[in-house]
């Protein structure tokens, strides 16, 4: 089947085959990666190689730390204010459920200034902002760069001046090249484009580390992870190993993020063209804010949407149901989704349209 799940989601077949060949014994270690001590030479090589590959693939400058954490992207909603609030206030743009959840946690620890929101339009677009809307005294500006549920994406980052930009890239990291220097902190749950659930990656500018209140629990302080190369306690070893394989696939099989972007653009264009030409399906998102990773669409009739999801599943196109908060359909076409999956989906959509258009 082709799996259009929003996450956890498809992994490249190349990665799964390699992991399966190494499942019982990694190299000549006599052990599975799952059974290895995290302090062993083999695992140290795995985590260091994973970090080096991520640095190469994303072109991460030396003044940024890469941290491997647990707790999901959701724990970052709390860790970010715990670690970055000094003056006690942050600016936020509300682009949906995930930024609202981040605002809820921020409000427990400091002042949350809502700068812009697209809530009134069902989060169908990215609010445009200008530099003078942001508080130059804020500790950071927070955005969710790709909105998994609604299918919107920032194609131009807000100009926040000297205030660090903090961004949730859970559902778009590694989909295209980015300029890391534009951000103070980037975070992502791994379970979409990086690997399996259980790993969260934080990329943070060094000067933002070490500002947490001294009462902050060690496990919630970025400094603990930075000072201990993410090995203060047992890291999610198997998820890090798979993330390393995903990065190897990106470097050696795909050829890097420029190539990945070209492939992703082609897949997304195919699906959006089908939607734009359709008389049955509509894409509710503003054209200039469309996501390449999560593509939402509706027929306008909830019963027909349900029928589509059911028949698609029977045709081997699974997990196309939209998020429970918005309904309709959503095709998540992360890096690992082959073009054949999108071709099969668009052919199925055309066939469904011809059978169901009144
Ligand atoms: N942020 C975004 C953009 C997401 O799509 C998700 C989950 O889908 C999350 C945060 C929450 O991630 P987690 O379940 O790892 O906490």
TrEMBL record:
Binding site for pyridoxal 5'-phosphate: 73-74, 98, 148, 168, 191, 233-234
Residue numbers binding L-glutamate: 39
Necessary cofactors: pyridoxal 5'-phosphate
Enzyme Commission number: 2.6.1.52
Compartment(s) of residence: Cytoplasm
Record carries keyword DNA-binding: no
N6-(pyridoxal phosphate)lysine found at: 192
GO molecular function, one term: O-phospho-L-serine:2-oxoglutarate aminotransferase activity
Pathway info: Amino-acid biosynthesis; L-serine biosynthesis; L-serine from 3-phospho-D-glycerate: step 2/3
Entry keyword annotation includes Cytoplasm: yes
Aminotransferase class V domain sequence ranges: 1-345
One of the record's GO cellular component terms: cytoplasm
GO biological process, one term: L-serine biosynthetic process
Chief subcellular location: cytoplasm
Textual note on the cofactor: Binds 1 pyridoxal phosphate per subunit.
Reactions performed catalytically: 4-(phosphooxy)-L-threonine + 2-oxoglutarate = (R)-3-hydroxy-2-oxo-4-phosphooxybutanoate + L-glutamate; O-phospho-L-serine + 2-oxoglutarate = 3-phosphooxypyruvate + L-glutamate
Keywords: Amino-acid biosynthesis, Aminotransferase, Cytoplasm, Pyridoxal phosphate, Serine biosynthesis, Transferase
Quaternary structure, from the entry: Homodimer.
Similarity section: Belongs to the class-V pyridoxal-phosphate-dependent aminotransferase family. SerC subfamily.
Function as written in the Swiss-Prot or TrEMBL entry: Catalyzes the reversible conversion of 3-phosphohydroxypyruvate to phosphoserine and of 3-hydroxy-2-oxo-4-phosphonooxybutanoate to phosphohydroxythreonine.
Classification via PANTHER family: PHOSPHOSERINE AMINOTRANSFERASE
Listed name of the protein: Phosphoserine aminotransferase
Gene that specifies this protein: serC
């Amino acid at each position: 089947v082709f799996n259009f799940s929003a996450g956890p989601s498809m992994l490249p077949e190349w990665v799964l085959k390699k992991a399966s060949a190494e499942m019982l014994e990694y190299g000549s270690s006599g052990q599975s990666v799952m059974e290895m001590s995290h302090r062993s030479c083999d695992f140290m090589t795995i985590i260091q190689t994973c970090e080096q590959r991520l640095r190469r693939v994303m072109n991460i400058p030396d003044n940024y730390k890469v941290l491997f954490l647990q707790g999901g992207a959701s724990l970052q909603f709390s860790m970010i204010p715990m670690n970055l609030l000094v003056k006690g206030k942050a600016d936020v743009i509300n682009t949906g459920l995930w930024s609202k959840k981040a605002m809820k946690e921020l409000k427990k620890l400091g002042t949350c200034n809502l700068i812009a929101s697209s809530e009134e339009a069902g989060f169908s677009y990215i609010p445009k902002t200008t530099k003078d809307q942001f508080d130059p005294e804020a500790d950071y500006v927070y955005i969710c760069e790709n909105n998994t549920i609604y299918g919107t994406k920032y194609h131009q980052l807000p100009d926040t001046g000297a205030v660090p930009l903090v961004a949730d890239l859970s559902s778009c990291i590694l989909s295209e090249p980015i300029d890391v220097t534009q951000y103070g902190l980037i975070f992502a749950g791994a379970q979409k484009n990086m690997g399996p659930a259980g790993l969260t990656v934080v990329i943070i500018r060094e000067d933002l580390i070490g500002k947490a209140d001294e009462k902050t629990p060690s496990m919630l302080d970025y400094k603990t992870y930075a000072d201990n190369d993410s090995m203060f306690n047992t890291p999610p070893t198997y998820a890090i190993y798979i993330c390393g394989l995903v990065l190897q696939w990106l470097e050696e099989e795909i050829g890097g993020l420029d190539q990945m972007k070209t492939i992703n653009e082609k897949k997304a264009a195919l699906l959006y063209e089908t939607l734009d030409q359709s008389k049955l399906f509509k894409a509710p998102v503003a054209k200039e804010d469309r996501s390449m990773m999560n593509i939402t669409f509706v027929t306008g009739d909830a019963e027909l949407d349900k029928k589509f999801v059911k028949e698609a599943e029977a045709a081997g196109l699974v997990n196309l149901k939209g998020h429970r908060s918005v309904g309709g359909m959503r095709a998540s076409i992360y890096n690992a989704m082959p073009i054949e999956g999108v071709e099969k989906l668009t052919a199925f959509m055309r066939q469904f349209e011809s059978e169901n258009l009144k």
